[in-house]
Amino acid sequence: MSPLAVRDAQRCEGIVRAAASGPVREVFVPAGTGALHALEFGRDTGQFPPLVCLHGVTGSAWLWHDVAQRLGKTRRVIALDLRGHGESTWSQSHAYSTEDHIADLETLVDSLDLPRFDLAGLSWGALIAIGYAARSPSRVRQLAVVDVEPSFERGEHEVEARPACFPHRVAALNHERQASPAAPDALLKIYAFHSVRPAGGGWARKHDPFFLSCWPFRRDNHWNALREIACRTLFVHGERSFVRGAVMRQMAESSQRGEFVEIAGSGHLVALEAPAALSAVLAQFLD
Question: Alpha-carbon torsion 226, 259, 241, 173, what sign?
Fold first, then answer.
């Protein structure tokens, strides 16, 4: 299977052109739901294997923009839009389990011919990464689990209310600023503007409205999978996050080759709020 299309993302949105320090390519890969969309940064240098990055619920690949720009100087970085998010196709049957996303990740890395790579996931993306690494140990060289717990006390339908649309893109930007106050202005603008599309005279979120009322990963329990992973695994916690640092330390201790680090001043969306610090931590770990 080969990618459907590759295009220069800098031609799609003027907001990227000024902030990007390198080219961003968009890749569309055929998948079970229709198509998977991913962003590519950097290039294969032969120095390090590619890095695949996964975002969390209601997010998008653009969350990883600044981290990928920094790490892309020495390697190829691929950031995936999970199914139902960003430019990836929505599932008409709401097939959005973590297992469904793991299957999509398998499709992506096979389509891009990545026999061995590093893997980083944030929030739900981290759970997907854990599941994939446990299932395909020969493919993942090193793993980074960013700000997530492996099991949940709240149910999948206990989701806090959030806006589905905005009157204009600046309103979307203001919303993201409240959620991630420490995020750099340029990155937050890229992320917020790419997170909405024109709809009904306003701007709607670029994810399936299903996620406004249901987060399927709340059914998950990944403690056993963590113990099965043999590769080096870095557990990254945001100091100000609602995710409990003590639980993430326990995750590292439960893993065969786990390491723990905390990013000072960051909330839950570490890649958005502290891209420079996260990039430095990941570069040191992966390199």
Answer: negative
